[in-house]
Every structure is written in structure tokens, then in C-alpha cells.
Amino acid sequence: MSRSSETGAGEIAWDVGAIFESVLRQVDRRRGPVPQVDVQFRPFAGMNHRARLRQGVLSVRLSDLLQGADARVIEALAMILVAKLYRRTPPAAAQLRYRRYVMSRGVEQRIIETKRSRGRKTITDPRGHAYDLTEMFAEINTRLFDNAIPATKLSWSARPSRLRLGHYDIAHHAIVINRLLDRQEVPRVAVEFILYHEMLHVKHPVESSGGRRRIHPPAFRAEEKRFPRYAEARAALRKLALTADVD
């Protein structure tokens, strides 16, 4: 037996629980009763979803951004969430259908707007111990972009990390650089290159096509290599053993 409820605006989609129950029967082929299904829509900061199977109850919490989505999209997401719960690989067709929905222009824009209004972004002082991101941004913008990059929030990461050297948050229009780079022993050219890379993300939006996202399209990569001291910057980062990703 399934039940659906909601928190927030929008109509109650009573069939969502039935969709999850149907998928659950397909995935869990053991004899006996299937778990009870409880589905609720929640006002998450983005297109986030949670599913938990405990004590005979499948609890599903879906982003309210999915309200009004086609039943086939809900079914695809159910396939993905339930398959993961059972430690199985989600069907490729389900993953593609869900990605295409999330990446559709109207939905993608709603996700960005929701992250901006509901999400939190920690912004620290761009003036670090060794480098001032504000001064560096202005200099790079003038020298390499002819001042074409609009004013952008700049921040050092709250904590050093070896996972990402930097990232551009489109929802909050903010560039965050890994605090690990804010040290005297890190050559300025290395920091400039990472900041330049993130500024390119402001200039070159992510491309979406056929259910796939191209974070670094060809035009992006071509311009990245035109950084005046590209080889030197890459060598400096390798020498520092900084192998984290740059988004």
C-alpha cells in the first residue's frame, strides 16, 4: 500500500506513491509483501531526493521541483532511487530520461533560481594571507578578457581541500578558490590560472545536449590553453602535488 503527501505549494500527486510501489515490485522480486511506500515532496534547495528503506517502509522525499512532472519522469527517478537502494545499477534508459528532464531549459533555470533563494553560500574575505582575489580578478579581467567578465562574488574556500582547486557557483554567481592555494610558497601564476579557469566558466555556460552536460566545451578548452603562461602554471600545480579537480 502506498500513500503520498506534500509539504509546500502545489497539488498532491497521489499516483506518485503508486509509481514507486510498482517499481519496487519490479526490483524486489522476492515473494511476500512489498514494503509500504511513503512519498512526500519537500522544499529542498535544489533537485535533491532521498530514499530510505527501513522496517518495512520505503520513505521517499522528493524535491517539490518535481511536482507536475510527467509520470514517466517520476518512474525514471523511482527506478534510479530504488535500484541504488538495492545496490543495483539503475537502467540506462531511466537515467537518460531523468537527465533530459533536469537539463531541459525551463527546469534547469528553476533549479538555479531555487538554489539561489533557498540555498546557503559561504562567502569569505577574498583578501587572503598571500593573495587578494579581488585585485587578481580585476587584473586578469583587464589583461585577458578586456573587462568582459561581469562583477562576480569572490571567496576563498572556508577550509583547505584536496578535492577541488576552485569552482564557479552559477546560482550565487560566485567564484570560490581553494584556500590551499593561499600560501606564499604557491606561485602566483598557479593561483592566476585557477582563477582564470573559473572566470572562463562565467564566459562559457555549461552546454546541455541529448541528456549530457558539457562543463568544459571545446571553446572553453581552447581559450583555457591561451592562458599566457599555461605550461608554467600547470607545471607549478604538479610540482605542488595539487591533483584536485578544477570545476
Provide structural commentary.
Helix content is 40%, strand content 19%. By secondary structure, it is of the alpha/beta class. It folds into two domains: 2-118, Zincin-like, CATH 3.30.2010; 133-246, Metalloproteases ("zincins"), catalytic domain (Zincin-like), CATH 3.30.2010. A hairpin with a 4-residue loop joins strand 6 (164-169) and strand 7 (174-177). Helix 1 (15-27) crosses helix 2, helix 2 (71-85) crosses helix 3 (92-102) and helix 6 packs across helix 8. Mean pLDDT is 86; it is low at 5-14.
Quick tags:
247 residues; alpha/beta; Zincin-like; 2 domains; four-stranded mixed β-sheet; 8 helices; 19% strand
State the shape. elongated
How would you classify the quaternary structure?
single chain
Alpha-beta content class: alpha/beta
CATH architecture label of the largest domain: 2-Layer Sandwich
Question: How far apart are the termini?
Answer: 44 Å
**Strand coverage percent:** 15-25%
Give the neighbour order of strands across the main sheet.
1-2-4-3
- Arithmetic mean pLDDT: 86
SSE series: EHEEEHHHHEEEHEEHHE
Q: Please give the number of β-strands.
A: 10
Which residues sit in consecutive blocks of at least 5 with pLDDT less than 50?
Answer: 5-14
- Count of folded domains: 2
Largest sheet data: 4 strands, mixed
CATH top-level class of the largest domain = Alpha Beta
Helical stretch count? 8
Approximately how much helix is present in the residues?
40-55%
